[in-house]
Design goal:
- This protein is mostly helical.
- It has 17 helices and no strands.
- Mean pLDDT is about 85; it is low at about 1-5 and about 190-200.
């Protein structure tokens, strides 16, 4: 695969996409750790607090297809601005909430805004970047979001030291306001003539599902498994650390180190995908994550759990942008935004389904069996990518 045309410079759109993405991730990272605490402070039980936190994911899942319709109708830039504005309204609701249900409405709204923002920024980047740089750009997009979410809790903790729990929300307000401002000053993209002509006729969701059913039930299921592993990796470390008797501080350090490793290799991984093909990252990423999860129940102390967690972070880190890149490659020029809305819906089903499978197997058998079963999903995903993922981007 050749290098991109020398006329193109990714720095020209760095502020347009990566800046808002970094800030939006920072805002979400600031509030995620305190939502359950806020809910219980308002009088919610632990079960209800968990549901309130889960409403972000539920809101995102249910909004993926409407987000595609909105983005297709109003354009990527306006959709990002609208998502940031809607998210600010949701944060204001969380700040003034005096009842758990009000906080729940706010978190659900944040999930809705996240869905629109993420779809719009992905579509924008696909249209703006040459195909030969697509994986690098989307990996960087995923990496900047992760950096923001990693830094958000630390910034929020510093502000909460002065302002209390509400300080986390104000960090999010400032960050997401900044994301909206940057999005406002981003010029609308000029689509290529072929794409403009193709998109002039709107495509129905039903016809897209029919025309691309094979992609959805092969690669779509594979990326759902990717998302299942990613969702479960955040759960299994604290659960297994508690199982082997580690304290909360040690667990937090292990989790933080895993997050740091996770952020290291997103750009080199994207370059590998662009140069050698998507399989060179997709398959190793799933094998590394799957095997590390299957080995986790064999860890017995700090050192062994730390090593396995770092390997797990490495596997997830090299897969940064993988779901977006595979979706972008599979998406048609005509109806691309709607296609990606359905694609994100399928991926989010994996995000929600993975923890449910983990919980079910743990309840029926044991935690170690639950963790191992999630690891097996990684091997299945690797096999599906080997069978159905083209070695090179086709669109």
């Amino acid at each position: 695969m050749t290098e991109p045309n020398s006329d193109f410079n990714m720095r020209q759109i760095a502020l347009a996409i990566f800046g808002p993405s970094l800030l939006f991730g920072l805002g979400e990272g600031a509030i995620f750790p305190i939502l359950a605490l806020n809910a219980t402070a308002l009088g919610a039980s632990e079960a209800w607090a968990g549901l309130i936190v889960a409403l972000i994911g539920i809101g995102s899942l249910l909004s993926n297809i409407p987000a595609a319709i909105l983005t297709d109708r109003f354009g990527e830039r306006r959709a990002m601005i609208g998502a940031a504005t809607f998210s600010l309204a949701a944060l204001a609701l969380c700040i003034v909430a005096h009842r758990p249900w009000v906080l729940g409405v706010g978190t659900f709204m944040i999930g809705m805004a996240t869905s629109v923002f993420m779809l719009a920024r992905q579509t924008y980047l696909i249209e703006a970047i040459p195909l030969v740089m697509r994986a690098r750009a989307l990996s960087t997009l995923g990496g900047t979001m992760r950096i923001g979410m990693f830094a958000g809790p630390f910034i929020a903790a510093a502000v909460m030291h002065v302002m209390g729990l509400v300080g986390a929300y104000w960090v999010a307000v400032i960050a997401i306001f900044g994301a909206g401002v940057l999005s406002y000053f981003v010029p609308d993209l000029e689509a290529a003539p072929r794409q403009r002509g193709a998109s002039s006729v709107r495509v129905g969701m039903a016809s897209l599902i029919k025309d691309h059913a094979h992609v959805y039930i092969t690669l779509g299921i594979a990326v759902a498994l990717v998302q299942a592993l990613r969702a479960c990796r955040q759960i299994v470390i604290p659960l297994w650390a508690d199982q082997i008797g580690l304290d909360a501080t040690t667990t937090a350090i292990i989790y933080g180190i895993m997050g740091g490793v996770d952020m290291l290799l997103f750009y080199p991984a994207g370059r590998v995908m662009d140069t050698y093909g998507r399989r060179w990252i997709a398959i190793p990423s799933m094998l590394i994550m799957g095997v590390s999860l299957m080995l986790m129940p064999w860890t017995v102390g700090v050192a062994s759990l730390l090593i396995i967690s770092m390997v797990l972070g490495l596997g997830n880190g090299i897969g940064s942008g993988l779901v977006m890149t595979v979706g972008a490659d599979a998406s048609p020029n005509r109806g691309r935004t709607q296609f990606l809305g359905i694609w994100r819906f399928i991926a989010d089903l994996g995000t929600g389904g993975g923890p449910l499978l983990l919980s079910a197997v743990t309840a029926i058998i044991s935690l170690s069996a639950g963790i191992a079963s999630i690891g097996v999903l990684g091997l299945v995903a690797a096999g599906m990518f080997w069978r159905w993922l083209p070695s090179r981007a086709q669109s």
